[in-house]
Amino acid sequence: MHALDTVARSAHCIDLDEIAAGTNLWQLRLGIDSDGKHLVVRDGATARVLIDLRTLSTARARSVGATHSPPPLLLGAGGAALVALAAGVIAVRRRRGQASASGCDAPNSVDHPGDQ
Asked: HEC string of the chain?
């Protein structure tokens, strides 16, 4: 793996010796762990390698301390919920806009006999 430092204009080669021979490299994914100190190399939902972002040293991910990403189904459900919430907010705002335009909720629209 190559890490490019665009500020210092340097490149670092990081050997991933912890990745087993025969691993389908196209299935590996990268992410940042919860404390933001490590780059995590994953094979599916399983963390395989941790790369220290300060020192660029690597270590085999331990199952106890390794973080994992949520299952895709959970991510999809969360995304669908956000879309539904956004659609609901848009619908409510449109209804309020139509009601205001028709004068239905104007506070001074009540006529009282004799007020002139």
From this structure: CEEEECCCCEEEECCCCCCCCCCCHHHEEEEECCCCCEEEEEECCEEEEEEECCCCCEEECCCCCCCCCCCHHHHHHHHHHHHHHHHHHHHHHHHHHHHHHHCCCCCCCCCCCCCC
